[in-house]
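Researcher: Hi, I'm a grad student and pretty new to this. My advisor asked me to get structures for two proteins we've been looking at. I'm not sure of the right format, so I'll just paste the first sequence and hope you can take it from there.
Model: That works fine. Here's the first sequence with its structure tokens right after it:
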Amino acid sequence: MIVDSDRDVAETNENNNRNTGEFLDYDAVQINDTQPVVNAWSWSNRFDDFTQQISDRWDQGYELTSVERGDGRWFGVFGEDERPNAWSSSGNFDNFTQQISNRWDTGHNLIDVEYGDGRWFGIFGPSKGRNGWSSSGNFDTFKQQISDRWDQGYELVDVGYGDGRWFGVFADDERPNAWSSSGSFEQFEQQISDRWDEGFDLIDVEYGDGRWFGVFGPDNGRNAYSSSGNFDTFTQQISDRWDEGFEMVDVGYGDGRWFGVFQDD
């Protein structure tokens, strides 16, 4: 299935429920003569609590940029992206795709998709031109859909996997654009290094159906990743990356491992 929109529409936002959970920010701190890092994350085991954390982050001036469901946790990454910022979620795929269309009608572009705990979750940012998605339960078909989107002038910006389905998000982003995938984590790490050598940056990671999948965009400065099978170790890795002047731009989870993508913005 392939769907897209290039409508010009107005902005909106969204408020949600209650709260418990964990927050951590790194707010506008100067690091060794580099630019300030403005980045945060929140997580909760409960979906209702997680949605309240999103609202609280909005009140603090952050925008939701990436979501992952892994190891019983909902995990959100927050930055200083442009408004409007919104999310939609449903346990029914057809309903979820209708929510995407509804967001297009209110001036949003789909920027990130996640599946977890029986639920599809989409993050939306301001409309910046054409936006589309493609989905298939067959990986080879999904790869062809990516090629077809490239032929239409789109770039792949995010990939999700859930309920036996691959899901790609496409936009009018900068070229070059590429992807790599492997069932071996060590081989996947080598693929990332190879893409760096070719002048790409890693921008998104997903795990599904026994394979790691990475999305790559043009080189925009320092690019890094950190990974751990221990959640506390992973959150320390995030803090360490902040100390190095990086911001977390994407989070993934698969095969018992947390994975963070970092960019020197």
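Researcher: Oh nice, that was easy. Here's the second one.
Model: And its structure:
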Amino acid sequence: DIEVQLCGDAHVQNLGSFAGPDGRLVFDFNDFDETIEGPWEWDVKRMAASIVLAGREANHRHATYSVAVEAFVQRYSTSMEQFAGEPILQVARHQTHRQQQVKPITAALRQSQRATPCDLLRKLTTPDEHGTPRFRDKKPVFWRVTDHEAEQVLRALDLYYETLRPESQRMFHLFRPIDVGFKVVGTGSVGMRNYVVLMEGNGPADPLFLQLKQEVASAYNRYRPHIVHEHQGRRAAQGQRSIQPISDLLLGWSSMGGHDFLVRQLNDHKGSIDLEQLKGSGLESLAEVAGELMARGHARSGDACMITGYCGSGAKVSKAIRDFAIEYADQTEADFAAFQNAIKANKVHLADLTPAA
């Protein structure tokens, strides 16, 4: 096997935009909950299957999403070949260009411009009798925690502080905690502990939202049992730093109650991919960008020359992965249909997460 640091969450809707350390908006992979050292093709195959599923969701024909998968693998191969011949530091700093010309990315960047911490402050909080912002209860998806639980979370921030880089430690000292909430999060993390800390910097108009997200062993660990990580939050944070040239200034980790946590900003100009934007040429264009981003991450953490030697021109590899992706997407849809049938037959209980009025 040719091993790299896997993204682990290599799928279309894990691509999105966020603010880099210099304030510029960046488009890249967002989450790294499943990151682990593993064979490069695992990421490629998963993203390829995701492109097929996204294409079907956008009502594309078989030929269209097949071409998109091949375009993804071809861009991965050609980018890797380019990186194999470049100085290592140049590869580590590589930035993808032409993103502004890709409709789904443009839409995500527009969303990012609106997604400010102040916007989140308006959505999640209300002033108390002293004018201090407090989290609103929106059970069962969001609520304020008890004072005892809040104390535990704030103590965890002391451990988190030690994981920050020195320049980020100095900046973090300028913020003070205001309130603590609990947020129910997406499909892969349902049932996990996920806290949100509201902090205030230079006055009420300078909010910071930190997310403490529980991390467990990567889903890939069952296939990589020889790899042991003592702290799953550190695994996720260090994996992200290994893959990306630009990451959250406040990325770190902590522990609480015997559980591991990743700590990061909750919403700093974050935007996501809208599947509606994948109609027309949007899917193929996005797939090509995904191929370049993935190749850069793998080249930063693995041997670009060896991967290039395996892929060759990319033609045979792209067709083989296309065929795999279509079969895997078929299986995914069959699994989801079985899941829906189990719900209808009351074999699986479906929780009601409609927020209370």
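Researcher: Is there anything I should tell my advisor about the second?
Model: You could mention this: Residues 315-344 form the longest helix (30 residues).
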